[in-house]
Amino acid sequence: MNFCPNCQARLNGDTEACEQCNFDLKNQGKWNRFWTSFFKVGSAEGQENAVLHKLQGNDLVRAREYKKALREYDHAIKLDPLYSDAFNNRGAAFQHMGRYEQALDDHRMAVKLDPWDAVAHYNLGNDLQSLGQYGEALVSYDTAVEINPRFAEAYTNRGVAYFNLGEHEKAIENYNRSVHINPALADAYNNRGNAYHQLGDYELALEDYTIAIRLDPGDAATFSNRGIANLRLKQFQDALDDYDTAIGLDASLGEAYAGRCLAYLLLGDDDRAQRDMNSAVHLGVQRPDLFEAVDKIRSSPDLRSPAGAG
User: Fold this and answer.
1) What pTM was computed for the model?
2) 218-310, which class in CATH?
């Protein structure tokens, strides 16, 4: 089945332009999904069975049965070795498993087979970003949004790549485009809050974290991030409340214990602060800046809230 790479509308037969958005399908100097279909190998029955295995793999991914999903995608690719969607989706399963090198191989094959698949380019960018190759990830995200200029998630993750490169203003530009396209994308607000935080604009960071929480109240990391902003704004009780919520949602989130440790210290509760410090270290938090902050607060009583409130 073939779709317009710009608006994702279904394509009907040998057409030169999308009927929905009038996107030029033939004169772009690139292969598209329609033309790659001419090079399919194997019988029509084999290709139909490949689709069924891919769909079963998709169901298994949704059920988080990733190893079983891989087997279904393997079957699909064996039946149809040029099935770009099967490579793309198998790569996504590898992503879920943290096997980024294998995901990278599959997504490179997917974009080779179907260079106009914006999602495959996006997934390739995610692989590269997970492997710390931020500059190369930008190239993939650029291609994804060139193919589909309304791909909000691609703008968000391109913003993350810029953030990881220390280019926070460019990151914010991408998050702005993302939320303009999809105002309900919580991840874009959370990441924009991180960028504002790095630029020292804690009020704007707080606003974005609050919007993200309203859109996705089950994301522990966003509550933890808002806790940091509240600490910066000396709203210690609000910070404590955010960390409590974050830990209630995800008791393995070490950064939330680290932040709550600071909130307790600033509110004058050294015993609970020490317990949270121990929990943070136990969960793998190794941050010299955290230990320095704890020492500074303990040695400077004037930093603490005299009323025990923010």
Assistant:
1) 0.81
2) mainly alpha
